[in-house]
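Figure S7 source data.
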Amino acid sequence: MPDTRHALVLLSGGQDSATCLAWALAHFARVETVGFDYGQRHHVELDCRERLRTGMQAMPWPGTLGADHLLHVDVLRELGSSAMIDEVAITLQADGLPNTFVPGRNLLFFTLAAALAYRRGLTVLVGGMSETDYSGYPDCRDNTLKALQVALSLGVDRPLVVETPLMWRDKAATWALAHALGGDALVELIRRDSHTCYLGQRGVLHDWGYGCGQCPACELRARGWRAWAQGNASV
Ligand code: ZN
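Tokens for the predicted zinc ion complex:
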């Protein structure tokens, strides 16, 4: 029985959100996407969004891919500095979190996504957050997002469901999920046209995709790819 609900995918252009878009197209009747321009230090990820959408549009999903929305949230930059926004070295802060953490980012993104979903008649919000293989960002945790689902549903007086298909999957299992959803063609699309590197480098195409190969995001992606390629991952 196909799920007739309409979904909104938070599509950043990275591996995780790209996999979530495929997952949503496999599950819901209609899917729209939203991206956020918050002055991140490079625009490579945002440039990948359209290529991912075009690539997935050509694949035989049950769901229809609808409109894309790009929202500008410059306010995050006004709130303060982060290695995700500014050209500074990636280090651990005194509280143990990496300085790539942008406090409030996912809370704000989901709030804006809920407002957009309300306007567009969409009832499922899909995000690629995970607390399995993550950097410790507290707004990626399952409880944060479950609490947010309740707050957002009450706030718009409409049942909104927050879906996070990668919450308990590591990066290797995320590649395995992409393969289960769309086979080699989807894996290749995500490998080439998604972007995860914190430094925005796209000079060299590695077996796991583009990136500097050194930053924490590249290391995580490369390690996950290798584990999956060696057959050490299940959906
Ligand atoms: Zn990198």
